[in-house]
Amino acid sequence: MSEAVARAVGERFRELYGADPHGVWAAPGRVNLIGEHTDYNDGFVMPFALPHTAVAAVSRRDDGVLRLHSADIGQGVTELRVADLAPGTDTSWTAYPAGVVWALREAGHEITGADVHLASTVPSGAGLSSSAALEVVVALALNDLHDLGLDGRRLARLCQRAENVYVGAPVGIMDQTASACCEAGHALFLDTRDLSQRRIPFDLAAEGMRLLVVDTRVEHSHSAGEYGRRRAGCEKGAALLGVDALRDVPYEELDAALERLGDEEEVRRLVRHVVTEDRRVERVVSLLEAGDLRAIGPVLVEGHVSLRDDFRVSCPELDLVVDTATDAGALGARMTGGGFGGSAIVLAEARDVEAITKAVQEAFAAAGLRAPRVFEAVPSEGARRLTPAV
Ligand code: GLA
């Protein structure tokens, strides 16, 4: 399957640029099992990679020219000069790959140009990290072609910097690390403070279970501004409590911390979510390591309630998925990613998948909403070179 994809993307590259690419790379989107809005608080997350990937055919150039093309955007080849790249100058899709080149150069890596053709199967605007997949696939290709020797964590940090500074989105480090470091059959237990990580076996099929992704196909326009506001609120909470990040508030001291925040109602809610969510990640890790997969269901639902009522990043469509799926017999369900639209995940017995899917589809139709996209997610491989094989 990936060979055929690599061949097709390579052929298109040849049509565009008149020669074979030096290589073809892939980087996946992700879903997050648990640990939401904790990554910019130095906390814990637990994503896994989707089978959906961004694929890049890339050749190195040494004349300072960067040429970018995407199969998914109805636009010709964009030609830039690496020396001219500067944050805030590009508001189109090219800011993601160009931002990666800028971040690598800023970090002292001599990137002398490239020809790039990209094609992605990660749904965009669905909260499944299509942007991180684009960034990571380009970073990995340049890492190989320029012999930089950077590991997945370093590449993830540089991609985050590209998105924070060059694109201007204040995201955390989860999505880029998930895309760069995940492994098939595993979820990634990641400490976002130092990027230390443990791969936790997550084979639902072997236990007769499935994990569904329900893309609501709604994207509320205020999501970017709200994300920044939540992040600022968390930083305010940490400052008021005298800690570097909310990760440093122990769960056992949550009540005392909330008391100290007095009448800062909004900050109190944000702090409560982050501290309890870090705890939920640790609970899920223990349950998975004990082989008690079904028991994570209620923890997922608790996480959703906390995101809905305390962190306030859910929306009616996501709540509808979670409520309908759990009413129809799901073991658990929650929104995943930043929120305000995008996708939810549903954990279910294999035998219940059909009935749950039907119930969700009917609920959306009854509410007059566009049909959601429902698919099964199997923990897949992280970023890798497709050709030539290494
Ligand atoms: C988005 C961001 C991540 C993370 C999640 C919420 O996906 O890109 O860094 O903050 O939202 O958990």
Overview of the molecule:
- With 390 residues, the protein is α+β, with helices and mostly antiparallel strands.
- The protein folds into two domains: 2-199 and 380-387, Ribosomal Protein S5, domain 2, CATH 3.30.230.10; 202-376, 2-Layer Sandwich (Alpha-Beta Plaits).
- 41% of the residues lie in helices and 22% in strands.
- The protein has helices at residues 2-17, 95-106, 130-145, 152-167, 174-181, 223-241, 254-260, 265-289, 296-309, 316-327, 353-366; strands spanning 23-32, 44-45, 47-60, 65-70, 78-81, 114-120, 186-191, 197-201, 209-219, 332-336, 341-349, 373-376, 384-387.
- Strands 5-4-6-3-1-13 form a six-stranded mixed β-sheet, sandwiched between helices. Strands 10-11-9-12 form a four-stranded antiparallel β-sheet.
- β7 and β8 (197-201) form a beta hairpin.
- α3 (130-145) packs across α5, α4 packs antiparallel against α5 (174-181) and α10 crosses α11 (353-366).
- The two termini are 17 Å apart.
- The model has no long low-confidence stretch (mean pLDDT 97).
- Alpha-D-galactopyranose (GLA) binds at residues 36-37, 39-40, 171-172, 174-175, 337-338.
